[in-house]
Amino acid sequence: MSPLSLLARLGRLALGALAAVGRVALFAISTFTHMLRPPYYPREFALSLLQIGWLSLPVVGLTAVFTGGALALQIYAGGARFNAEAVVPQIVAIGMVRELGPVLVGLMIAARVTSSIAAEIATMKVTEQIDALVTLSTNPMQYLVAPRVLAALITVPLLVGIGDIIGIAGGYAVAVHNLDFNAAAYLKNTVDFLEPLDVISSLVKGAFFGVIAATMGCYYGMQSGRGAQGVGSATKSSVEAAAVLILAANFILTGVFFSL
Amino acid sequence: MTQDQSPPPMIKMDGVYKAFGSNRVLRGMNLSIPRGSSMVIIGGSGTGKSVALKSVLGLIKPDAGEIYVDGKPAGSGDRDAFLARFGMLFQGGALFDSLPVWQNVAFRLQRGSLKRPADEARAIAIEKLRRVGLKPDVADRLPAELSGGMQKRVGLARAIAADPEIIFFDEPTTGLDPIMSGVINDLIREIVVEMGATAMTITHDMSSVRAIADNVAMLHDGVIQWAGPVADLDQSGDPYLDQFIHGRAEGPIEAVR
Ligand SMILES: Nc1ncnc2c1ncn2[C@@H]1O[C@H](COP(=O)(O)OP(=O)(O)OP(=O)(O)O)[C@@H](O)[C@H]1O
Ligand SMILES: [Mg+2]
Description:
- Chain A has about 260 residues and is mainly α.
- Chain A has helices at about 5-35, 40-55, 55-80, 90-125, 130-135, 140-180, 185-195, 195-220, 225-260.
- The longest helix of chain A is centred in the middle third of the chain and has 39 residues, at about 90-125.
- Chain B is an alpha/beta fold and about 260 residues long.
- Chain B has helices at about 50-55, 80-85, 100-105, 120-130, 150-160, 180-195, 205-210, 240-245, and strands at about 10-20, 25-35, 40, 65-70, 70-75, 85-90, 165-170, 200, 215-220, 225-230.
- In chain B, strands 6-7-8-3-9-10 form a six-stranded mixed sheet, with helices on both faces.
- Bound molecules: adenosine-5'-triphosphate (ATP) and magnesium ion.
- Magnesium ion binds near residues 49, 50, 91 and 170 of chain B.
């Protein structure tokens, strides 16, 4: 292959990627403008709160408790190499709240919520239910997309907060029961060490990740090709995109909060 | 075409083109449907009948050509008001599978500009279900729990629920037994005659064509190959139409494409 044609191919790839970013950005903007404009669909919104928030609690709790526990064990073992076992409460707290809580909850939401939104909307697209909505004078952006994204914006930060607490509790349980930490001292160290900014950054990340997860599910669902294959590929792409974007957003937000 | 030009037709398609990639589906389709009449579109599978219906509703954007509804270009003016005049039965039913049957039928009556109180909406839904031959006990079932023919009839009930002025039926009797087909044919006729609605129906069922059509148009190769009153169907002298309505394998339409 000549260098020029390689360059042309790279250029096409880059343009394609940029165009995709543009389409997603336009979709996200359109979602937010539709959120503000009536009619509102309270029933759809309530169902989304239930689906995205409440029903995600078990998986979020389990993810957090195991991660907090493992974190405590690791920090204890690692810290022991230079007699720093005592930092377990502080590092568990900061690790959970700043990074692992939001990222793991975000990824679990991408797995659970993004995939189900994408599959549901793609199936509706393929079976002409989206067309039927339109003919019944109902805007799919308002009826399907806006309630889901708004529900994710509200519930995912809460899930992250709960995940943070459960993760710290997991670390606490392991530290107190297996590593002979003093219970009261562990809690006091945790509370003293955490700054308001840690908690704020955690919740803000949650809000971003929630919006990313729900938006990607809706976007790929609405773009779905025809047939079962279209639904499958929409679901796969939505989860991939959501996971990558969540990790990238996490990197950027961490930079914004802690190194500027 | 054999229409007088004085009142504007309810629907007019003027040189409509639509291609999907290299698949050129509509290639200059012209069609005119007088107000308060029943037009039936026939034509081979995959010739673009459903695409034509969706183009009028704006679900598919034509590549070229004009579509007028009630004398005004479709897509001009308020989209909600435009769509509120239509009812559409989709070929596949397109029922919302997360909602029970009655909420599917009453969808339009439960939100937006045509909103009614819930019990009234439900009563209307049950009445429309009765008109398509479904008993009130299906009202609370989910669409997935119904047979294909029952789903089709729920779709029909939903299309007529808000008493639209213009109704599109994409294969209303496909998958129904002969008696139920007769009931649905009568219903469509009734809606046109009694409510003065304008109907555009796609069907492959020639007895349906004769039962519900004022006018018939045959779509072939992306254009209307023949159009005229249903009474002229048998003396058209058009070899394509003759082959189609008699279901012959031999003729100008190649059976294998
Ligand atoms: N959204 C779409 N994307 C790509 N191709 C499409 C789309 N919709 C329809 N087509 C193609 O357009 C052609 C006409 O489709 P259409 O559904 O209008 O056929 P039809 O006349 O209604 O046939 P049938 O009687 O079998 O329902 C087909 O070749 C179909 O593959
Ligand atoms: Mg069709």
